[in-house]
From TrEMBL:
Record domain FAD/NAD(P)-binding: where: 8-308
Name of the protein described by the UniProt record: Pyridine nucleotide-disulfide oxidoreductase
Names of the cofactor(s): FAD
UniProt source species: Sphingomonas glacialis
Ranges for domain Reductase C-terminal: 327-411
Transmembrane annotation, as ranges: none
SUPFAM superfamilies registered for this protein in UniProt: FAD/NAD(P)-binding domain (SSF51905), FAD/NAD-linked reductases, dimerisation (C-terminal) domain (SSF55424)
Keywords: FAD, Flavoprotein, Oxidoreductase
Length: 414
């Protein structure tokens, strides 16, 4: 099916945070051309972080996690194209083809697809009861199954896995967390924070195991019954939640000749190597000034929104390079973790406050300079610490460790 009449000045592929915010930012900046927002789900654009928290817990209905109500998109003449997937891109003709065989033309293409959850490849990975956590449909299926589930196994000790474990524990389920690394959050935090969260989950009754290898998902009559580990033991559970990262959904761009690998490569203005094709969000591998200029992907709402602003500026004639300070958050139990900066490659970690009080911060330094902070129930440190990261401040570690001295005073003294 070819509809040559379907063409837009800006076609946005991906209707998550990045794609939706790009459309919004374009209109805010006075862009008057036609805009279409194409997504692979039937839903209106919605927030994903609450899926593993408030939405799974039943504390926030779907209507409250919509990025904007339906009328908003109509009022701003932003065409929504839900339930479609782009399978190929022709950069010379400025056309994409969808899974339905339809072609859609564009003057500028913004790729904001994020990526599906990384799936297990072991035997039993496709049994009923094995779930990823990316879409409303994923979580709705979990919610539907939960009344008949007593034991849940979470594979992966990153933020998604730990957040799901906290909610499922609160819902009265017996939860086992299996992490292959020696500690949870190993890729994003220092040992102090990892061990704190391990202790918290265990205190809430979670059977948390690190340094374990999953061999297969065991099943009966097509449904999961447990997880077999490398030591031969089987952890029983009729629901398995897999939280081991995402796979950037960039194959159509790479096949069309775009530079990339783990994501699609973009420059400081979020431009790919293809003409008139930009990319933002989880799938965009970009040079990051807070990672010593290394090309990285950031999986966060903040990054998606900030890069959406970058592309909106590019397309409205006011280009400004991406230069946003990375920040993240995670809610588990009554703990609010707020992170600013990137701790990757740190050589010193300074504990600020007392872990036993459940209110503390970890300040990360590299070459004597502050590069990141993890703040647990310490919003003041998080807010004030941003300035230390921006300034690459050099502060005496002994002073950083003194929780009685506000961080803003340290920067003034520096």
């Amino acid at each position: 099916m070819t509809d040559t009449a379907l063409s837009f000045d800006v076609l946005i592929v991906g209707a998550g945070h990045g794609g939706a915010q790009a459309a919004i930012a374009l209109r805010q900046r006075g862009f008057e051309g036609t805009i279409a927002l194409l997504g692979d789900e039937p839903e209106l654009p919605y927030e994903r972080p609450p899926l593993s928290k408030d939405y799974l817990a039943g504390e926030k209905p779907f209507e409250r996690i919509l990025i904007r109500p339906a009328a908003f998109w109509v009022e701003r003449t932003i065409t929504l194209l839900p339930g479609r997937t782009v399978v190929s891109v022709d950069p010379a003709a400025h056309v994409v083809t969808t899974d339905e065989g339809a072609t859609i033309g564009y003057s500028s293409l913004i790729w904001a697809t994020g990526g599906p959850p990384r799936r297990l490849t072991c035997a039993g990975h496709d049994l009923r009861g094995v779930h990823g956590v990316r879409t409303r449909a994923d979580v709705d299926q979990m919610i539907a199954e939960l009344p008949d589930v007593r034991h849940v196994i979470v594979i992966g000790g990153g933020y998604i896995g730990l957040e799901a474990a906290a909610v499922l524990t609160k819902l009265g389920k017996h939860v086992t967390v299996l992490e292959a690394a020696p500690r949870v959050l190993a890729r994003v935090a220092g040992e102090a924070l990892s061990h704190f969260y391990e202790a918290e989950h265990r205190a809430h009754g979670v059977d948390l195991r690190t340094g374990v290898t999953v061999v297969s998902i065991e099943g009966q009559d097509g449904a999961a019954t447990g997880v077999r580990l490398a030591d031969g033991s089987v952890v029983a559970g009729s629901m398995v939640v897999v939280g081991i990262g995402i796979v950037p959904a960039v194959a159509p761009l790479i096949e069309a000749g775009a530079a990339g690998g783990n994501g699609v490569t973009v420059d400081a203005f979020c431009r790919t190597s293809l003409p008139d094709v930009l990319a933002i969000g989880d799938c965009a591998a970009h040079p990051n000034p807070y990672a010593d200029g290394a090309t990285i992907r950031l999986e966060s709402v903040q990054n998606a929104n900030d890069q959406a602003t970058v592309v909106a500026r590019v397309l409205t004639g006011d280009p400004q390079p991406y230069d946003a300070v990375p920040w993240f958050w995670s809610n588990q139990y009554d703990l609010k973790l707020q992170t600013v900066g990137l701790s990757t490659g740190f050589d010193t970690a300074v504990l600020r406050g007392d872990v036993a009080t459940r209110r503390f911060s970890v300040v990360y330094l590299k070459g004597g300079k502050v590069i990141a902070l993890d703040c647990v129930n310490m919003t003041r440190d998080y807010v004030q610490g941003r300035a230390l990261v921006v300034a690459s401040a050099v502060i005496d570690p002994a002073l950083l460790a003194d929780a009685d001295v506000p961080i803003k005073e340290m920067l003034a003294a520096d």
